[in-house]
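U., I forgot to send this yesterday:
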Amino acid sequence: MKLSVVAFPSKKLQDLANTYRKRYDSHYSKITPYITLKEAFEVDESQIESVSNTIKSITNKYGPLKIHASKVSSFFPTTNVIYFKIELTDQLQNIHDDLYKEINIDEPKHVFIPHITIGRDLTETEHDDIYPQLRMIGIDEKEEIDRIHLIYQLEDGSWTTYETYKLTGEL
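Result:
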């Protein structure tokens, strides 16, 4: 079973991201806009309860996430992905690190760059055309997210929530 841990931003920020995603993101219909806290990983169904309990213990340590979507950026030239950059805070980094340390299933494949994808699977020409326009429009949204989600992938490639965890701690 393929799982991931994500934070969903407010409806307002999701709607803003979706104005671009419906045109530029091939995964638009598979999942709502999200911030990845732990990249997708494989588990046996027998491990899900243990993973869930681990996430619950982590969310008991941390309070709501304060996020700031500060600009439109890109992973070019590595990939032609365009995204809303979420400013990295100690809290986001610590949650990310704890998820990898406590759910000891794999190592991060990439450096942790919190973001909300708004465009993917673009050709280089599409990227070069769209990215400068989106950068000029920009973004400056601040909000608080009080829960994170364990999600799993369905057979059709879409993702759905397995369990939601409220961030109730002090850190």
